[in-house]
């Protein structure tokens, strides 16, 4: 089979039907793979760093003025501004990562606007 006979096949209705069918199957299966790759990219290069910081526990310094018992340190939720400053990113990028992580049930927003990891 040479190129001329292959070209003749593609110009017939059978060849065009095969080409359109192949194109539609590529769109159908390729779009899912493209979206999965995009999600992996976001998770690997953006969300992973944010999650690593949120998983670090941050405790309130104990002082004589607070009413906490001295043996139990209080956890402080992470703020978007603090995470952005530590990663060197903009606040809205960190917030987008936190929202994606929240949809995956890896972090939760506290009532005062902070973020903590779900274990």
Can you describe what's shown?
- The longest helix is centred in the N-terminal third of the chain and has 43 residues, at 13-55.
- α2 packs across α4 (91-103).
- With 119 residues, this protein is mostly helical.
- The mean pLDDT is 88.
- A hairpin with a 5-residue loop joins β1 (107-109) and β2 (115-117).
- The chain contains four helices and two strands.
- It has helices spanning 3-10, 13-55, 80-87, 91-103; strands spanning 107-109, 115-117.
- It has a single domain, classed as Winged helix-like DNA-binding domain superfamily/Winged helix DNA-binding domain (Arc Repressor Mutant, subunit A).
- 61% of the residues lie in helices and 5% in strands.
Write the layout of secondary structure elements.
Blueprint: H1 3-10, H2 13-55, H3 80-87, H4 91-103, E1 107-109, E2 115-117
Helix pairs in contact: 2-4, 3-4
List keywords for this structure.
Arc Repressor Mutant, subunit A; 119 residues; mainly alpha
Q: Oligomer, anyone?
A: single chain
- The CA-CA distance between the termini, in Å, is 61 Å
Q: Name the CATH superfamily assignment.
A: Winged helix-like DNA-binding domain superfamily/Winged helix DNA-binding domain
Q: How much helicity do the residues have? A: 55-70%
- Low-pLDDT stretches: none
Helix- and strand-based class?
mainly alpha
Number of spatially distinct domains: 1
């Amino acid at each position: 089979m040479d190129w001329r006979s292959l070209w003749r096949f593609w110009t017939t209705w059978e060849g065009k039907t095969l080409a359109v069918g192949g194109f539609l199957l590529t769109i159908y299966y390729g779009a899912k793979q493209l979206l999965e790759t995009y999600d992996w990219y976001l998770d690997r290069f953006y969300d992973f760093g944010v999650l690593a910081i949120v998983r670090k526990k941050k405790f309130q310094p104990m002082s004589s003025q607070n009413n906490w018992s001295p043996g139990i340190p209080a956890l402080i939720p992470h703020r978007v501004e603090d995470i952005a400053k530590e990663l060197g990113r903009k606040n809205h990028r960190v917030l987008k990562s936190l929202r994606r992580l929240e949809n995956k049930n890896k972090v939760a927003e506290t009532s005062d606007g902070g973020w903590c990891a779900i274990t």
